[in-house]
């Protein structure tokens, strides 16, 4: 059996990041992946003459080369150079305010521009918005401190008290405490769907970390789909001496006493001298891949407390169009189409197919005209489901009917809300349902976001849990990914992989390994 310092199971965003963090730290690393290409969600696929990105809309925390955000700094540390394209606006939303009046708002990137535009749409909002951004910055600084070495608890209360005070609250409560005008809160609520939890239950720290990163550093996406990111990360890992085995499926984690020391796969057994990092849903790890008697009691309690509150189950329709974005009148990179500003009502409507009228429209060609062949464009529509009930009961003969009906609904929404009609320009169409994401990513119910980051199960709670010590976890085995300390999303997963890899190395040093 070949031995390594560390083994990383799964080459999703967190897995690639963890493997690179270990490799740049001069560790002998093996990365195994059940598929034939790396990346998980961060990949691409081809239909006809079009290449599509299955899930990435944009990344937060990238920033420019001159003003890098946390995500770009991670890639810089690894020596991974991605061709980034900036999405200059945060979003456009077409909906209704909570008072029933029409909402058609476009919010720009950059703190000052964002605050000024909010003042334009909602006069009198500026002072509260400045308080909002001050709080978000304190949270970002505090989270960075919590991820650093040599944390001093006294310093947390001295420097990051705003973060501590807001850490246990949901987003609605904090926005109310900041005395933001109602219409400003309506506009700010647009981002809830990127995290899959309504504002009344969404951890404010997770929300603030994402929003501040998007606004402060702008949003970016890779020039050649997110497959570019994954391929370049894999290539860099090999350059650093790491090994990658594709088509290698982890089947069981092996133990010596109560310590995980190896992984059995379809291609053989591999030994980790120090630890294994698993980019796998914790339910699968603890439910199928380790002996039942070694599942920590805390993990069982945590699973019970979460009550299967999985995050968004994704549903996306991809269109290859034989006309350019300009010819079709598409001027916005992304447009949100919520039914209204009540995120709780919207969240509940997404439990059923019949009441789901939510979608996000995206066209990469607006900022990258070369994203598709000359004279064409690519767009997508994404919605999500907050319950699996209807899909659990969906008959096989109705599956394609559902996908067709959803695609028509997306097309009609765009036409009704903006006047843009893509129906005569469709050359290629493919649709991914929660079944698709579940099958490809091995994500329960197609919930690519993992568990919802609710106020009690957010970044602070998960970070504190991480620092509690090995008694709360399985020795030598570290789950990573969207259920980790930074929650869901591409940027969060890259950060989580780095943080947990550093944690695993620190634990090994303490144990004298």
Short description:
This protein has 19 helices and 18 strands. The protein has 513 residues and is of the alpha/beta class. The protein folds into three domains: 3-41 and 66-83 and 224-308 and 451-510, FAD/NAD(P)-binding domain (3-Layer(bba) Sandwich), CATH 3.50.50; 109-216, no CATH class; 312-444, Polyamine Oxidase, Chain A, domain 2.
Provide structural commentary:
This protein is of the alpha/beta class. The protein folds into three domains: 3-41 and 66-83 and 224-308 and 451-510, 3-Layer(bba) Sandwich (FAD/NAD(P)-binding domain); 109-216, no CATH class; 312-444, Polyamine Oxidase, Chain A, domain 2 (Alpha-Beta Complex), CATH 3.90.660. Helix content is 39%, strand content 21%. It is built from 19 helices and 18 strands. A hairpin with a 2-residue loop joins strand 3 and strand 4 (50-52). Helix 1 packs parallel to helix 10 and helix 4 (126-146) packs across helix 9 (204-217).
Largest sheet: 7 strands, mixed
| Strand content bin | 15-25%
Number of domains: 3
The CATH C-level class name of the largest domain? Alpha Beta
Indicate the mean pLDDT.
93
Derived from helix and strand composition plus strand pairing, the structural class reads alpha/beta
Distance between the termini: 19 Å
The CATH homologous superfamily of the largest domain is termed FAD/NAD(P)-binding domain
Fraction of residues in helix = 25-40%
What is the gyration radius calculated from CA atoms?
A: 22 Å
What is the overall silhouette? Answer: globular
């Amino acid at each position: 059996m070949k031995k390594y310092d560390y083994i990383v199971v799964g080459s999703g965003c967190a897995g690639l990041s963890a493997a690179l963090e270990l490799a740049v730290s001069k560790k002998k690393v093996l990365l195994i992946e059940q598929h034939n290409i790396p990346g998980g969600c961060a990949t691409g696929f081809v239909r006809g003459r079009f290449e599509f990105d299955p899930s990435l809309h944009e990344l937060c925390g990238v920033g420019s080369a001159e003003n890098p955000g946390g995500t770009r700094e991670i890639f810089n540390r690894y020596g991974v150079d991605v061709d980034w394209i900036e999405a200059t606006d945060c979003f456009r939303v077409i909906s209704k305010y909570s008072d029933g009046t029409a909402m058609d708002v476009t919010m720009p990137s950059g703190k000052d521009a964002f605050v000024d535009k909010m003042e334009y749409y909602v006069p009198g909002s500026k002072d509260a918005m400045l308080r909002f951004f001050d709080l978000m910055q304190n949270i970002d600084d505090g989270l960075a401190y919590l991820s650093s070495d040599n944390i001093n608890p006294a310093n947390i209360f001295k420097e990051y008290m705003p973060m501590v005070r807001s850490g246990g609250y949901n987003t609605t409560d904090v926005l109310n405490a900041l005395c933001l005008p109602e219409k400003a809160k309506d506009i700010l609520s647009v981002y809830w769907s990127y995290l899959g939890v309504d504002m009344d239950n969404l951890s404010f720290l997770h929300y603030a970390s994402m929003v501040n990163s998007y606004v402060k550093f702008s949003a970016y996406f890779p020039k050649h789909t997110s497959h570019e990111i994954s391929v370049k990360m894999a290539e860099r890992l090999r350059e650093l001496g790491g090994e990658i085995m594709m088509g290698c499926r982890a089947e069981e984690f092996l133990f010596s006493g109560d310590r995980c020391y190896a992984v059995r796969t379809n291609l053989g057994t591999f030994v980790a001298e120090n630890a294994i990092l698993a980019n796998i849903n914790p339910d699968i790890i603890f439910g199928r891949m380790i002996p039942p008697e070694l599942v920590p009691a805390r993990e069982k309690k945590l699973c019970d407390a979460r009550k299967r509150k999985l995050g968004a189950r994704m549903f996306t329709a991809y269109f290859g169009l034989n006309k350019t974005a300009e010819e079709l009148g598409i001027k916005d990179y992304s447009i949100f189409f919520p039914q209204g500003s009540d995120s709780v009502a919207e969240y509940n409507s997404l439990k059923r197919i019949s009441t789901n009228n939510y979608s996000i429209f995206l066209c990469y060609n607006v900022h990258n005209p070369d994203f598709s062949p000359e004279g064409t464009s690519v767009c997508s529509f994404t919605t999500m489901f907050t319950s699996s009930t209807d899909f659990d009961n969906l008959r096989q003969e109705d599956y394609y009917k559902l996908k067709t009906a959803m695609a028509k609904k997306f097309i009609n929404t765009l036409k009704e809300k903006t006047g843009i009609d893509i129906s005569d320009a469709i050359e290629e169409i493919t649709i991914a349902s929660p079944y698709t994401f579940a099958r490809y990513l091995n994500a329960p119910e197609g919930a690519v976001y993992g568990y919802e980051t609710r106020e009690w199960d957010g970044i602070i709670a998960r970070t504190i849990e991480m620092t509690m010590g090995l008694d709360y976890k399985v020795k030598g085995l570290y789950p990573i990914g969207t259920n980790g300390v930074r929650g869901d999303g591409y940027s969060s997963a890259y950060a989580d992989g780095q943080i947990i890899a550093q944690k695993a190395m620190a634990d090994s040093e303490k144990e004298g390994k």
